[in-house]
Amino acid sequence: MSSSKVPQSGSDTSLTDPVRYPVSASPPVRTKRAFVLILLTLFVPGSAQLVAGDRKLGRTALRVTLCAWAAIVLALLLLLFNRPLLINFITNQFASLVIILVLVALAVGWAVLFINTLRLIRPVLLVPGARPGVGIALVLALVISSGSLGYAAYLLNVGRNAIGSIFSSGPAIDPVDGRYNFLMMGGDAGDDRTGRRPDSLSVLSVDAKTGQTAIISIPRNFQNARFSEGSPMRSVYPDGYNCGDECLINAINTEVTNQYSDLYPGVADPGAQATMEAVSGTLGMPIQAYVLVDMEGFSTLIDAMGGIRIKAGGWVPMSGYFDEATKTHGMPLGWIPAGEQTLNGDQALWYGRSREYVDDYARIQRQQCVQQAMLKQLDPATLLAKFEDIAKAGTKVVDSNISSSQLGSFVDLAMKAKGKEAKRLTLGPPDFDASFSTVPDFDQIHERVDQLLASASGAQSAGTADDVMAVPAAGGGHVQASGSRSPGVLQAGGSTAQQATPAPSDFTPVTTTPEGEPITAEMLNQLKSEGNEEAIRQLVATNGQCAPL
C-alpha cells in the first residue's frame, strides 16, 4: 500500500512546473505567467499551447505560423526583386480571393488560440487586482492580431471589387517602341448626354523601363482629327473628322455612341474607343489603352486623397452662371488664390475646368498640373491611410480598358516615374499658334511628337536632366519641358542646340497688381461688379502657370 504512494520518477518536478501547473505557483508568478502566455500567442502563435497546454494544437499552430512567416519573407523578396509580379499576384481576381480567405482563416484561428490561452491562464487563480490588466492585455493582443488580419482581408476585398469595376479583363498590352501610350480623358456625363463628352484629352507616354513620362495635350476644339488606319470610323470620315465647326475632337465620343456603335461590336465603350483611334491617327502614334475620368465625380477622388498641393501662378475664378445673352459669367462663386495652395475636391475640379478670362490652353496647363499633383501625392503612405475611400471613389470616377493583369507592371512604372519631370507638348499655345487646332499640319504634329518621345526616352542616357530638352525655335511650335516656354536655338544646318529650360516650378505667382497692391477676392469681385472684365483679365493672365508640390 505504501509503495503505491511513491510518485513516479520526475513526476513531482512536472507537477510543480509553474508554467504547466500554475496551482503550485505563487501569485506573482501566476501573473507573470499570464502575460508571458499572451505575448507568446501574439508573437509566436501556438507556442503558448506547446509549453502550457495542448501540445498537438500547439504543434499544428506552429506549423501554420512558420508557413505564414515563409510567405511574408517570400513577399518581401518579391517586393525587393520583382515588385510587378507581387502586385500582379495580389491584384489577380482569383489569387486575391484566395488571399482574402486565408487571411480570414488565420484571423479566426488566431482568435481561437487567444481564447485557448485565456483558458490556460485560468483567471480564477490570479489575484483580483491582476485580472483587469491581464484581460485588457489579452483583448489588445487579440485586436492587434486577429483584428489586423481581418481588416487587411476587408481592404483587400475593397480593392478587389474596385479593380473588377474599373479595369478590363481583356488581354495584356505590349509596349510599342519601348513605350506604353495611354489616353487620359476627362469629361462630364450629364442627363442630357449619351456618354461622357471628353473636355480634356491628354496622352501619357511612359518609357517601359525608366518610367520617364511625356504628356501630349489635345485641345477639345481640335478640328479635322484623323482616325488611325484600321479604325472603323475611317470609312465614315476617310479625310478626317471634317464636317465643319461642329466636328470637334471632343464630339467624337457622343457621335459614335449615338450613331456608329454598330461599327464596334463587342466593344464596351465605342465612343471612347473611337476617340482613342482619332487621337492615335492625329498624333501618328499608337495608343494602347484609355482611362476615362468623370469630372463630376473627380472631386470625390481628390477629397478621398486628402486634397492636392500646388503652386498656382495666378488667381482662378470658380465661375458663376453663364448668361447666353451677354456671353459672360455672373459673379464668381469664389476664387482660388495664386501661390501655394492645398485644394479640396471642389476647388481642384474648378481649377482644372475654369477658362473664364483666359483661353483653353491655360486650362490645359492647369489640368496637366492637377494630374501630376495627383500622381505625385498618391504615395504609399496616403494610399494605405485612405485606401478604402480612394478605392470607393475610384469606382465612381474612373473607367478604363487597361487589363487588370498588368496593374503590377503599371504601378511599378508609376513608382519609377515619381520624381521625374514629365515632358510636355500641347497642340496649341504655347507650342503652336492659337489657330493651329483649326487648320492642323499633321506632318508637323508627327515631327514634334517624334522629337518629344525621343527626348523622353533618351534624356537620361544622353546625360540630359529630366527637366531639360532640345527644342526647335522654327516651325510654328516647340517641344518643351513641363511648364517651360523658352525657345531653343536653331543652328546652321538645321540642328538644334541643347538648351536648359526652366523647371515648371521656376515662376513667381502673381499676387499683387502692377502698382504693388495685394490682389484679393474682394478686389476682383469689385472689378466684376463694375463690369471691368479687362482689368480682371490682366490680373489673372498668368493662371495657366502651375506646379505640383
TrEMBL record:
Transmembrane segments: 34-52, 64-82, 94-115, 136-156
Keywords, sorted A to Z: Membrane, Transmembrane, Transmembrane helix
One Pfam match: LytR_cpsA_psr
Biased composition (Polar residues): 493-514
Domain of life: Bacteria
Disordered as annotated region, ranges: 475-516
Domain Cell envelope-related transcriptional attenuator: 197-378
InterPro entries named among the record's database cross-references: LytR/CpsA/Psr_CW_biosynth (IPR050922), LytR_CpsA_psr (IPR004474)
Family the UniProt entry places it in: Belongs to the LytR/CpsA/Psr (LCP) family.
Identification of the protein by name: Cell envelope-related transcriptional attenuator
